[in-house]
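Reminder: ligand-aware prediction takes two inputs, not one.
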Amino acid sequence: MTTLTLVRGDITRQTADAIVNAANSSLLGGGGVDGAIHRRGGPAILEECRKLRASRYGKGLPTGRAVATTAGDLDAHWVIHTVGPVFSSTEDRSDLLASCHRESLRVADELGARTVAFPAISTGAYRWPLRAAARIALETVRNTPTDVEEVRFVLFDQSAYDAFAAQIR
Ligand code: APR
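Here is what comes back for the chain with adenosine-5-diphosphoribose:
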């Protein structure tokens, strides 16, 4: 049974087995969550991301996929990097956003992670409306069989927290 929890705060200050990063395909860092994770997690994370780019992901990590690295100086064992879809008002990319959550849980299971912290993937630079993203995130986690015991959504501001709180049954 997976417990779903919501927390208002900075995901880089969470203690969890795995912390999910809202990355981009390059895996080489960015702003938002990505920037915060690399800043606080330190160079070891980027070093492993570079190795992934030099090997399995020569062309970058595709949207909707997930891959783990060390968590560096974060209070976690792993960072699970996943690439959310950019919001489109003409094309329904919901399944790619759902895939980010499904794939992150699959990777978490492979690692044996029991607590996983997620940010609100794609709701920042990638412009997904918060309520729609929250519904997809929560529904996907609820419907994905996993050994993860706690999935914690860490929401950076009140509007994101309220959007998730409104959707959690
Ligand atoms: N902790 C938790 N949530 C955070 C933090 C943080 N430290 N910083 C930002 N957020 C929130 C944002 O407020 C937003 O709700 O995470 C959500 C996702 O926003 P982004 O980080 O912009 O991620 P995303 O919308 O998926 O865009 C990804 O942005 O940072 C670049 O390299 C990244 O190109 C990629 C793109």
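Residues 42 and 72 are 6 Å apart (CA to CA). The domain at 3-168 is CATH 3.40.220.10 (Leucine Aminopeptidase, subunit E; domain 1). We will return to this case in the review session.
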